[in-house]
């Protein structure tokens, strides 16, 4: 809504004069799209430092800050807030993906609390949480795609009543779809508003948006529990900040992640393409700007409903949703290659909405299937934030590429999309083949925690939480055990000495007896000869 208002030439001149609002909008978009490039360097550190829940809370707070800048639209408010949003896009989605997987695992522990490994807080068996991961990701994407619907409510209930009809806005538009040779929608009228909205009405709409932003912050604060136990969070931080910084890069050695990189990129391509390229060059170009909100709403509803199809992974192989979503998008891209709608022709609205709904089907299978597969592959709680950081960083790179290609012809954009789709499907099937052959992935070792924090966690070397009486009791126990050990050692030594003395006495007793008997025999033998001589 805000970009449409800023696009209108009359609105800019009346409200902002010579401030250069359109140039500010371009710099805002640059800040949002370029800043996430460096997010791989700091995202894991931020998540480990603040924690998963508080990282989500902080990121949503920055979104609320961006909404608040609409009250006072100036260069020094809009551009810094846009850069801040670009900086927290990857941390927000990485922490959100990590949080959903952790909630699925914790629900497994809740549902199977009688199991010995749950009671002893040991690691769950491999694959035990897969069912819950599928269910939680499905429910999440059911609600996530509804955000596309809710985001268009200000345009439906407020802005549409000020828009000019399509005969005016599309008066100079001569080509649509694949006939567009440069830009997104060349020829669109510079004045798209019939009348300018009153400032009071704009303030009311912006206040509603601020209320929604604060409500989302409160929901995270009140309803979302901690993703980890306090001792687990200390363990996650205690591996060293240098190791935390490096582990995102080290996880890229895993061939499973490398084979999924093209899918990460394509998932970023397809969402922005349907919301910008398709919606403008095919939808708005043929049925008017007043129907833009309904195109996005149709996409959101279809993707939300079709996200439930990912439940088939409970009974069928995991390859089916991703491959099926890729096949649907492949046919749609080929169809878009062959179709160039006529400008200002409302009779083509059925075709536009049908393609939108089918694109939502492919998007739902793609997004939900990819997140579920990542949750299945990386069940270790020590790795999930690194994995989802890599996933959403590649998506951010794809968004940056879409920002760069805005001036390319539509055929070039579709060619890039089709090439990325074919490479991603081929790479994914190759990965599944390696897994079926038993090729072991190269997973980096997570360093052991090095506990330096005192006063919070029970440490083996120095327990800072125990009282003085406990310490004295432990010292008495240690002294008593040491005294008992010394007494036992002395008893053993005494027994050995007594045994040695008895042996010596026995030898002494035997030695004189043997000599006395021998002397008597010799004496008797000596007397006999003497008697004979006498």
TrEMBL record:
Residues 457-534 are annotated as: Disordered. The keyword Transmembrane applies. GO terms for cellular component: endosome; lysosome. GO terms for molecular function: Toll-like receptor binding. The chain crosses the membrane at residues 28-47, 54-72, 78-101, 132-151, 202-228, 260-280, 292-313, 320-340, 352-374, 386-406, 412-431. Residues 475-489 have a biased composition (Acidic residues). Keywords: Membrane, Transmembrane, Transmembrane helix. This is Protein unc-93 homolog B1 isoform X3. Residues 491-511 have a biased composition (Basic and acidic residues). GO terms for biological process: intracellular protein transport; toll-like receptor 3 signaling pathway; toll-like receptor 7 signaling pathway; toll-like receptor 9 signaling pathway; toll-like receptor signaling pathway. It comes from Geotrypetes seraphini (Gaboon caecilian). It comes from the Eukaryota. The keyword Iron does not apply.
